[in-house]
Amino acid sequence: MHIIITASEVLLPLLKQLSQQGDVRPVLYEKFHMPEWFHKHGIPTSGSATHV
Predict the structure, then answer these.
(1) Which domain of life is it from (predicted)?
(2) Domain coordinates of the chain in residue numbers?
(3) Which DSSP helix (H) or strand (E) runs through 49?
(4) Which parts of 1-52 fold into alpha helices (H)?
């Protein structure tokens, strides 16, 4: 069985949620933990890109 998820099924709900936020950084941090991913892969981050 193959499950196909389209970009609209994933991106549109996320974009709608983000559009309702004043600051998207906490939402993105909670969902994706990007600073940790960058660190794990040796990509430097600035202090402004971390969780607030």
Answers:
(1) Eukaryota
(2) 7-49
(3) none
(4) 7-19, 25-32, 34-40
